[in-house]
């Protein structure tokens, strides 16, 4: 989609000492994975427009995300499989989106889509106007569950709008939904209270997940097959990150058996978890003590660890991880020139340095998800035409050894593992950097970075 296709966030500062749980995770990885060589990058195309983004990748290789349609005035969620990008449609309105790492292996896809009904409060709840840059529609937006070609609207908690963000292999969906309570304390344009929602596994079933004591609102962002749910707790604010005065709820939380617990922080007031794996490891981003800069975090067994940034960068955030403890995200300089990273074996690596030089015009901006084979769904920038693209980075040991891009120069790539290069940095055009600031909550922190440094 156009200026966000989802929502993003930020992080910054340099690398601190790693805590014991991270070291143990790295040791576990060393025992269960081959050393990476380099990557083959595939451009997945679009649904007719000039931009797309890949958000999630399953172990079967299905990729989900969002793409502009022809004319770039609307966008739809898609499923890419067997080399074809399939339009998932809408719930009767103009726009839909898949904006989170969704990698259910049963073929279940969740996202958000406009209906044909007008929103009486014009909240732009899913951000198609303010974040994606599409013409305003004023339509209600609902979470959806897609399976076998059928998109089904998920219920709300009594209000008009909802978003579905995560799904597990048990068919349970998580996200956020409006209640029927109008609260003047909600930040405009939000009118109704918002609470974290757990749908299913039975059709039409919805449960509310409570915020931390003393907080007003909650969001659920991810769920694993152990029914552990991660999300946010804090103020009642619009999930439309580019709405005037919009922020994010302050506390990162985890729900187990319906009980909510605080994930902690990196010295600041905001912690934003994006993904949880089957081991209960969580990644995301959190503010530092200045409450302006955000850093990638890794949470395990009650300990939140700062993973830092790539050399010379200021901010970073992790969007996905797999069960091997490999983490992907993005690291950016002060001007939001960003590059995708892979964190493994205790080291953050610029993913672009592991792609064979000259093999693709795509610069990998964010790594959004990674499956158990190490394949990475990414947001990319096409340096040949200035467009943003949906891409998949495939480790060469997942391709036939005879593949041209993998067979030539494979030995040199191993030596570069763990190293970063300033040559991989790309000065992004203002149009792309504007999109990055609008994605996943970057906007609020972008202003602080540019005025305080």
Q: Strand order, main sheet: write it out.
A: 1-28-27-26
Question: What structural category characterises the helix and strand content?
Answer: mainly beta
Number of domains: 2
Low confidence ranges = 1-34, 409-421, 443-453
Mean pLDDT: 84
Measured as a percent range, the helix fraction is under 10%
Q: How many beta-strand runs?
A: 28
| Overall shape | globular
How much of the polypeptide forms β-strand, as a percent range?
Answer: 35-45%
Distance between the termini: 31 Å
State the major sheet: 4 strands, antiparallel
**What is the CA-atom radius of gyration, in angstroms?**
20 Å
With helices defined by DSSP (H or I, 4 residues minimum), what is the helix count?
Answer: 5
Detail the topology: elements first, then pairings:
Elements: H1 20-32, E1 39-43, E2 48-57, E3 63-69, E4 75-81, E5 84-87, E6 92-97, E7 109-118, E8 139-147, E9 150-153, E10 158-167, E11 173-182, E12 192-199, E13 206-209, E14 217-223, E15 229-234, E16 251-256, E17 259-262, E18 271-276, E19 282-287, E20 294-300, E21 303-308, E22 315-321, E23 327-332, E24 338-344, E25 347-350, E26 362-370, E27 376-382, E28 388-395, H2 404-407, H3 410-415, H4 430-438, H5 442-452
Antiparallel strand pairs: 1-28, 2-3, 3-4, 4-5, 6-7, 7-8, 8-9, 10-11, 11-12, 12-13, 14-15, 15-16, 16-17, 18-19, 19-20, 20-21, 22-23, 23-24, 24-25, 26-27, 27-28
Keywords:
globular; 28 strands; 42% strand; 9% helix; disordered C terminus; four-stranded antiparallel beta sheet; single chain; mainly beta; 453 residues
Can you give a write-up of this model?
About 60% of the residues are buried. Residues about 1-35, about 410-420 and about 445-453 have low confidence and may be disordered. The protein starts with 19 loop residues before the first helix and ends with a helix. A 4-stranded antiparallel beta sheet has the order 1-28-27-26, with no helix packed on it. The chain is built from 5 helices and 28 strands. Strand 14 and strand 15 (about 230-235) form a beta hairpin. With about 450 residues, the chain is mainly beta.
